[in-house]
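Researcher: Please predict.
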Amino acid sequence: MPTLDWLNRDTAFRTADQVPYRLLQAVSSHGDGDARNLLVQGDNLQALKALLPLYRAQVKCIFIDPPYNTKSAFEHYDDNLEHSQWLSMMLPRLQLLREFLRPDGSIWVHLDDNEAHYNKVLMDEVFGRKSFVGDICWQKSYAVRSNAEFFSTSIEHLLVYCVRRDKFRLGKFPRSAEQLARFSNPDGDSRGVWQSVTMTISLMSGARGRQYEKTGSSANIYEVRSPSGRVFMPPARRCWSRSVDEFLRLDRERRIWWGPDGSSPPRMKMFLSESEDTVIPTTLWASGEQFGFNQDGIRELRALGTEFPTPKPERLLMQVIGLATDANDLILDSFLGSGTTAAVAHKMGRRWIGIEMGDHAVTHCLPRLEKVIAGEQGGISTAVNWQGGGGFRFMHLGEPVFSADGRIHPEVRFDALAAFVWQQETRQAYLPPAPGALAGTPLIGVFEGVAINLLYNGILGDRRPESGNVLTLAVLQALKALAPHDGPRVVYGEACRLGAARLAAEGIVFRQIPYELAAR
């Protein structure tokens, strides 16, 4: 498969693995204290690495609107990166983002022509060409720039990729007023309004095309006669979409439309009463009423008392989220910008994680999301009947798990290291147990019949390293009593005082921290 080559490409492919795992520190809670929505301030590459143990393979939809590399500098972030630097910035982030997606999940990357086509090739490499779903062209503006050098650009791209095509399901759009207007009832049919659709299909592709190439004929090429007596054959290189018997049955049931005077080529009636209320989305999103324009995003933010360059309108995100997710699914945006993705996800009853590096995580995102939970009525609020509620936690990036000498950082607590251990052992997200379920025990969880235990940070009530954090016979008995398990165990600890024969007899694999943990 063709690939992109650029300066520092090899280094970029190793960057994600070299990012240290950092702690997440809670700063404040807003609204519902039990809500698990997260607003994270910090470098998004490091934040993604910190979140991965908790949310690996848990996210249904990722939407990102990264810097466009337009050779201009915005107030809130630098959008002036050299092409190779831009690719080196995007690659490790895409690699980590893929790890967050569920098997039925999708990622939507919003870009303009400066980097969209290069990013398409990059995503082919990260996600695989077969994971490409579509390139949506969104009309970003209704205005024409009279000072444009050549063309006044009107569109931007949403590149959509899934994880597994056999698992991914894309939603549909409700029929628009324009689409409903195509239905009428010129012949007074008792079955109600209808629209006519073509009765022919191409012979130049698929199974019929192969048959045509071999024989020069098709079973669905035949004469039909209209009520006025006119005879019709399908156009060149096309055939009827139905067999002759099926065609005659449809005609008897008055499902063939021959035009008002009965002499037009046949078309089939499609009744609104027999049709779905939804339609398959197209890759051209050009209705401002349905998808919004950039100008709408600017007005929405101004109504909230703030400014931001090129914010996305809430209606655009509403369509993305409506197609890609269901209620309570988890959505991630690691280039949160002004906070639109999180605001729309919240109003639509989805869970969300938003990551933003700059100060405007505090000056823009935080106050906007506080207004959302208070019930602000801008953007899509009326469309989704938003009345307020819910909550989120505001987090900062903290210290790395490991210090420069490879030891566990002294500020790391049991729960944070437990999440890291679980990820290393299972390659899955760590979902904390219900409050009180395993509190005060070394048991992190059971995976495929193996109990995973961590002796650290005085979890057994004794902070002395020669006791609670070292696997001795007494600690083993306490571990069995506090976390009974009929099966093998993996135990992480600072040291082990039990011999190989005893460990084998007990069905225990011991891993010494930090050495084996860091190496895995």
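Model: The chain has a mean pLDDT of 88.
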